[in-house]
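INTERNAL AUDIT FORM
Audit reference: QA-55
Scope: verify that the stored structure record matches its stored sequence.
Auditor: D.O.
Record contents follow.
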Amino acid sequence: MGDEASATSSATAAAPAPAASTDTAVAPASTDTVVGHGAHVAGAGLPRPTRPIRAVIHKSAARWTPVSLRAAGDPAAARTSVLLRIRGAGRRRRGTASRARASARLHRTKDDSRMILSIFPRALEKKRKHFEVRLRLVEGYVEEAKAVLVTVVDRRPRVGAGLDAQELTRAGVEFEEEFPDEGEIRVAALDPRPSSKAFNAGLLRGASFADRDAGLADVSWSVRGLKAR
C-alpha cells in the first residue's frame, strides 16, 4: 500500500453527507496563466473567473515534483470526467473519455488534515480502480499534493466500492497504489471546511501512469460537500 494509506487518521464528527457529483462530459482545460496564489493573466477580452480558494497554495507548489499544484481554471465550467490512455499532443491529443463520479473527504490527525478527492471513472469500475488527488493541509496552507491510482485487490465482490484509501485501510480492504511519474494539479475551487455546501473543483492533467488501463490521463472533478472522517 502507499505511504499515506499506511497511517490511520483519527475519526472526527461527520458533517452532513455531501451530494455526489453527477456524471458529466469532459471539461475543457483552462489556458489561463497563473501568478501567485490564484491571481492570473487571462486571455485578452475574457472575463476573469472567480476562484474560491480557501487555503494558501505556495508559489513554489508550481514546481513540485512529480506532481505540481497551482490555482487555475474556471470553477463554473468544472465537470467530473476522465480521459484515459491519451495519445498525441496539441490538437491531436486524443484519449478514451469516461463519465465519472467524485467524492471529497477530510481526514484529520493531530498535526494536519488530508483532503482526498476521489474520482471513480465508469470505464474502470469493473476493474475496481479509481483516482485520488490528495492534499495535505497544515494551518490553512497546502503543504503537499499527490495523485494516485488506487486498485482494490480484495477478492470479495463490491467490497470497498466508493471508499478512498484511508477508508479502505480502516475497513481492512486490501488495495494497491500507483503514483504517476509526472502530472499537474490545477485547482479551480478549494474549500477544506467540512460542510454540505463546500465546493471543490479542479483538474489533474497529464498524469503519467504505468498502468495500461490509465496510461496518460486527465482527471477532473466538481463536487459539492465535504465530509470529515
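Auditor finding: record pair retrieved intact. Residues 87 and 199 are 31 Å apart (CA to CA).
Action required: none
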